[in-house]
C-alpha cells in the first residue's frame, strides 16, 4: 500500500483504467506481490481468519435483519420465527451466534500472539493501537447483538451494563436515561441497540482497512522479531501466505462448523431462551464467555465507580503496551524471563474468565481480587521492570537463519499451557469443594435416540409425548411458537397432513374482528400456532397464585444444569446437548416427601431436582393417567421421558436436518483441508527446504 506500484498492466483497457483509478495495482501490491516474512508460523493466519469471519458475520447479519423485529413484544418471537419458519433460518442464526464466539476466540489468539512476539513495538505502535480500537468496537457490537434476542439474559445484561454509566459523577444518570430512551430498559433501548448493532460492523470494516493499511506500511512482524535484510528473508504474499491462510482458515472452519451443527447452543446461556421478564431477575447475571475476564474485574472492586474505571482501564491499558514494555527485543522467544511472566498472565486471564461466571462471594471474590491486582501489575510493574533487568538470548542474524533453525520452544509452550490448566483445575477443585454442601443433585444422564452426530427422533416416542402434552400439560402450558403444520413436517412426529389437520380442528383459535367488529372463536387450521390456555401471562399467573406456568415451546433449551469441570469440556466432543431434556425428565419424576429438616413454603411441593427444592407445580404425572395404544409402559418414568423428547423436538424442529447437513459440511471440509494441506506443502517445499551450500561438496538439495 506504500511506494511505487509493481503492477504493470499489459492490456490497453487496463492501462487506461489503471491510469485513472489504480485500484487493480493497489490490490496487486497488497495481496499478490506484498513481501511476507518467510518464517511466519500458523499464529499469523488469524488475521486472515478474522477477516473471513467478519465477512461471514456481516452477510449472515444482513439476512437476519430482514426477519428481525426490534420491538420488546415481538423480538423474541421474531427470532424463533426465523429459526422455525424461514428456509435455513436456523443455519443463519447459528452461524451468526457461534460466529461471534469464534470471532472473539480468534481475536484473543491474535492479540496474545501480538503480545508474545512484541508486535506492538516500534515501528508498529499505530498498527497496535488501531487493533485495540477494533477490539473495543467488537466488544460494543457483541454486547449490542447479545441484547437483540430479548431473552432473560439479554434484558438483564442490558440493564446491568448500561447502569454502569450511572457511576459517572454529575452526568451519570443523564447518560443512562439517554441510553435507555426513558427511565428503564425498554422499546427505545432495543430500537437504538438494534440500529447501532447494524451500523458498527461497517465501522469495524473501516478500521480493519486502516489496520491492513498500517500493516502494509510498516511490514509484518515475525517470530524472530528481526526486520527483513534481503529479498531472501521474504516471499510474495501470493501464493505463499495466501495458501497458508486458506489452509488454516479451512482447518478453523472445522471447529466453527462443529459448534454450529452439533452443539450450537453450547457457547450461549440457557436463560436467553426465556422471554425477557423485567419482574424476574436471574439468579446469576452472566455475560457471554468472551466478556467474563472483564466482568470479573468489574465485580472485584466494591466501589461502583472504581469498578467501572478498572473495567475500562483493563482494556485501554493495552493501547499503552508499546511504551510499558521497555525491552528492545521484540520476540518473547528470546526473552526467558518475559516468557515466564507472559504465561502467568495468560493463566491469570483464563482464571479471571472462569471466576467471572461464578458468584461474587466468598473464595471466588478473594481469588478475583488477587487476580485483578496481578492483571494490572503485569502491565504497570512487571513489563517495565523485566524489560530493564532481563538478559535476552542472542537474536538470529536474519529471518532466513531463523526460518531454517530448529527451535525447542514448542515443549516450553506446551509445559506452560499444562501449568496454566493445572492452576485452573486446582482452583476449580478447591472452590467447588467449599460450596459442595447443599447443592441440588444433578439429573441422571439418559439415553436418547436423537443424541450424537447421527441421532434422530423416535417417531413413536414423539407421538406418545404429544399425547402426554395434550392430555396432561396443555391445560396449563402453551406451545405458542409451534404450528399445527409442524406435526406433519419432515423430522417431526410423523403425523400425516390429515392427522395434523384433525388435531388443529380440535383446538379453538381466537380470530377477528369479524364484520361486526367482534372477536370470535373458530376451529384451528394447519397454519395456526398452538393456542395458549390463558389469554395472557397475567391471567395465567392469577390462576396459579402468581406463578405463571411457562410456555413449553423452547423449554428444552431454556433449562439446564451445572455440568462442572472437566465434564463441560468433554461435552464439546461428545456433542452432549441433552441437558434440558435430562433436567425436564428428572424434574417430572423428582417429587418426594418433604424431608424433616426442610421448611417447605405454603402452596409448594418438594422436588429434589428443582433449584431450591420448592416448586409451585404439583406432580403432573402418575402411573396410568395416559393410555398408550402401542403397548408402551404407562408409568410416570415413561411419560416423563416421552413428553421430554417431544419438547426437545418442539424446541429444535430442524434438529435432524441440522445434523444431516452438518455431516455433509464436515466431510467436505475434511477433504478440502487435506487438499489444501498438500497444496500448501508443495508450494512451500522449496522455501522450507532450500538448496544448501555444503563446504567442499558444492551445492546440494536437501529433501524432507
Secondary-structure topology with pairs:
Blueprint: H1 12-20, H2 23-31, E1 35-37, H3 46-65, H4 75-85, H5 89-116, H6 125-147, H7 152-163, H8 172-180, H9 187-218, E2 234-236, H10 237-262, H11 292-300, H12 304-316, H13 321-324, H14 336-356, H15 362-389, H16 399-404, H17 409-434, H18 459-473, H19 497-506, E3 508-511, E4 520-523, H20 537-543, H21 555-558, H22 567-574, H23 579-588, E5 605-606, E6 614-615, H24 636-651, H25 655-688, E7 692-694, E8 698-700
Antiparallel strand pairs: 1-2, 3-4, 5-6, 7-8
Helix pairs in contact: 3-5, 3-9, 3-10, 4-5, 5-10, 6-7, 6-9, 10-25, 11-12, 11-14, 11-15, 14-15, 14-17, 18-24, 23-24
User: How much helix, percentage-wise, in residues?
Assistant: 55-70%
Number of helices: 25
CATH topology of the domain at 459-482 and 529-652: Cytochrome Bc1 Complex, Chain D, domain 2
Any idea what the shape is? Answer: globular
CATH class of the domain at 459-482 and 529-652: Mainly Alpha
Number of strand elements: 8
Strand-pairing-aware structural class: mainly alpha
Biggest beta sheet summary: 2 strands, antiparallel
The CATH H-level homologous superfamily of the domain at 459-482 and 529-652? Cytochrome c-like domain
- Order of strands, widest sheet: 1-2
Strand content: under 5%
Low-pLDDT stretches are 419-438, 693-704
Mean of the pLDDT scores? 90
CATH architecture of the domain at 459-482 and 529-652: Orthogonal Bundle
Amino acid at each position: 500500500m506504500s511506494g511505487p506500484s509493481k503492477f504493470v498492466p499489459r492490456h490497453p483497457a487496463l492501462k487506461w483504467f489503471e491510469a485513472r483509478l489504480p485500484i487493480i495495482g493497489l490490490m496487486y501490491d497488497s495481496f499478490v506481490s506484498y513481501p511476507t516474512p518467510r518464517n511466519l508460523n500458523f499464529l499469523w493466519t488469524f488475521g486472515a481468519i478474522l477477516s473471513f469471519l467478519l465477512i461471514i458475520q456481516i452477510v449472515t447479519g444482513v439476512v437476519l435483519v430482514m426477519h428481525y423485529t426490534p420491538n420488546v413484544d415481538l423480538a423474541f418471537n421474531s427470532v424463533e420465527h426465523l429459526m422455525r419458519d424461514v428456509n435455513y433460518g436456523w443455519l443463519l442464526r447459528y452461524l451468526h451466534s457461534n460466529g461471534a464466539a469464534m470471532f472473539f476466540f480468534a481475536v484473543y489468539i491474535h492479540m496474545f500472539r501480538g503480545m508474545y512476539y512484541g508486535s506492538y513495538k516500534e515501528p508498529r505502535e499505530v498498527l497496535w493501537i488501531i487493533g485495540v480500537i477494533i477490539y473495543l468496537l467488537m466488544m460494543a457490537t457483541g454486547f449490542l447483538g447479545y441484547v437483540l434476542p430479548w431473552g432473560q439474559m439479554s434484558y438483564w445484561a442490558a440493564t446491568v451494563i448500561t447502569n454502569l454509566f450511572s457511576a459517572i459523577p454529575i452526568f451519570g444518570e443523564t447518560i443512562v436515561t439517554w441510553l435507555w430512551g426513558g427511565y428503564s430498559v425498554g422499546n427505545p433501548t432495543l430500537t437504538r441497540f438494534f440500529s447501532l448493532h447494524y451500523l458498527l460492523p461497517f465501522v469495524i470494516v473501516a478500521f480493519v482497512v486502516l489496520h491492513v493499511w498500517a500493516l502494509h506500511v510498516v511490514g509484518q512482524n515475525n517470530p524472530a522479531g528481526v526486520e527483513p535484510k534481503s529479498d531472501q528473508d521474504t516471499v510474495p504474499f501470493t501464493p505463499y501466505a495466501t495458501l497458508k491462510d486458506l489452509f488454516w482458515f479451512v482447518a478453523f472452519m472445522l471447529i466453527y462448523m462443529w459448534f454450529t451443527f452439533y452443539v450450537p447452543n453450547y457457547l450461549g446461556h440457557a436463560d436467553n431462551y426465556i422471554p425477557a421478564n423485567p419482574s424476574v431477575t436471574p439468579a446469576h447475571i452472566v455475560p457471554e464467555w468472551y466478556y467474563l475476564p472483564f466482568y470479573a474485574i468489574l465485580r472485584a472492586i466494591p466501589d461502583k465507580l472504581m469498578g467501572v474505571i478498572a473495567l475500562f482501564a483493563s482494556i485501554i491499558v493495552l493501547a499503552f503496551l508499546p511504551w510499558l514494555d521497555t525491552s528492545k527485543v521484540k520476540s518473547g522467544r528470546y526473552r526467558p524471563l518475559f516468557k515466564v511472566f507472559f504465561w502467568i498472565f495468560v493463566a491469570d486471564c483464563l482464571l479471571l474468565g472462569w471466576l467471572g461466571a461464578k458468584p461474587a462471594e466468598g473464595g471466588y471474590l478473594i481469588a478475583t481480587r488477587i487476580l485483578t491486582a496481578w492483571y494490572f501489575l503485569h502491565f504497570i510493574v512487571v513489563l517495565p521492570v523485566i524489560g530493564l533487568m532481563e538478559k535476552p538470548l542472542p537474536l538470529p542474524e536474519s529471518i532466513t537463519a531463523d526460518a531454517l533453525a530448529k527451535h525447542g520452544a514448542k515443549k516450553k509452550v506446551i509445559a506452560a499451557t499444562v501449568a496454566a490448566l493445572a492452576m485452573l483445575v486446582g482452583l476449580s477443585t478447591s472452590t467447588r469443594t467449599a460450596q459442595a454442601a447443599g447443592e441440588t443433585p444433578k439429573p441422571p444422564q439418559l439415553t436418547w435416540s436423537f443424541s450424537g452426530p447421527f441421532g434422530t427422533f423416535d417417531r413413536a416416542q414423539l407421538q406418545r409425548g404429544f399425547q402426554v402434552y395434550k392430555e396432561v400439560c396443555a391445560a396449563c402450558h402453551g406451545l405458542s411458537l409451534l404450528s399445527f403444520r409442524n406435526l406433519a413436517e419432515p423430522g417431526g412426529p410423523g403425523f400425516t397432513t390429515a392427522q395434523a389437520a384433525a388435531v388443529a380442528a380440535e383446538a379453538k383459535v381466537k380470530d377477528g374482528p369479524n364484520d361486526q367488529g367482534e372477536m370470535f372463536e373458530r376451529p384451528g387450521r394447519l397454519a395456526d400456532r398452538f393456542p395458549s390456555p390463558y389469554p395472557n401471562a397475567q391471567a395465567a399467573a392469577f390462576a396459579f397464585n402468581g406463578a405463571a406456568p411457562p410456555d413449553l415451546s423452547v423449554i428444552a433449551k431454556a433449562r439446564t444444569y451445572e455440568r462442572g469441570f472437566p465434564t463441560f469440556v468433554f461435552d464439546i466432543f461428545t456433542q452432549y446437548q441433552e441437558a434440558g431434556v435430562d433436567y425436564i425428565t428428572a424434574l417430572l419424576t423428582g417429587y418426594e416427601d418433604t424431608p424433616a429438616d426442610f421448611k417447605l413454603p405454603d402452596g409448594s411441593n418438594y422436588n429434589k431436582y428443582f433449584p431450591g427444592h420448592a416448586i409451585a407445580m404439583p406432580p403432573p404425572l402418575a402411573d396410568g393417567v395416559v393410555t398408550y395404544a402401542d403397548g408402551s409402559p404407562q408409568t410416570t418414568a415413561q411419560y416423563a421421558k416421552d413428553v421430554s423428547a417431544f419438547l426437545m423436538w418442539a424446541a429444535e424442529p430442524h434438529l435432524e436436518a441440522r445434523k444431516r447437513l452438518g455431516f455433509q459440511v464436515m466431510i467436505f471440509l475434511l477433504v478440502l483441508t487435506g487438499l489444501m494441506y498438500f497444496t500448501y506443502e508443495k508450494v512451500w517445499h522449496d522455501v522450507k527446504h532450500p538448496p544448501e551450500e555444503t563446504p567442499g561438496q558444492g551445492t546440494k538439495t536437501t529433501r524432507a
